[in-house]
């Protein structure tokens, strides 16, 4: 099954330490936001990361599949 690349934009900035704890996730700092880009093998893996972010009360701006 092919994986899908997603770009998840959150409000605010994540620390480098927090970002490095997210396995296989690339972090891009934006003005007042942080973009996280990663490949997910299925929706369960995607929702796992989204749930992890929710645990820390991190506000989502957008979640989009990208090529």
Protein described:
The chain is of the alpha+beta class and 67 residues long. It has a single domain (4-66), classed as Alpha-Beta Plaits (2-Layer Sandwich), CATH 3.30.70. The protein has helices at 16-20, 43-55, and strands spanning 4-11, 26-30, 33-40, 60-66. The protein has a 4-stranded antiparallel sheet, with helices on one face. The model has no long low-confidence stretch (mean pLDDT 93).
Q: Which CATH architecture would you pick?
A: 2-Layer Sandwich
Largest sheet: 4 strands, antiparallel
Radius of gyration: 11 Å
* CATH-derived topology: Alpha-Beta Plaits
The structural domain count equals: 1
What portion of residues belong to β-strands? 35-45%
Question: Kindly, what is the distance between the CA atoms of the first and last residues, rounded to a whole number of angstroms?
Answer: 16 Å
H and E order: EHEEHE
* Inertia-based shape: globular
* Strand segment tally: 4
Unreliable segments of 5+ consecutive residues:
none
Number of helices: 2
- Record the strand order, biggest sheet: 2-3-1-4
Q: Please bin the fraction of helical residues.
A: 25-40%
Average per-residue pLDDT, rounded, comes to 93
């Amino acid at each position: 099954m092919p994986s899908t690349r997603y770009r998840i934009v959150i409000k605010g900035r994540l620390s480098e330490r927090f970002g490095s704890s997210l396995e296989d996730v690339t972090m891009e700092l934006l003005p007042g936001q942080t973009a996280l880009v990663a490949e997910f093998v299925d929706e369960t893996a995607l929702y796992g990361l989204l749930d992890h972010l929710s645990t820390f009360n991190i506000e989502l701006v957008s979640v989009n599949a990208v090529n």
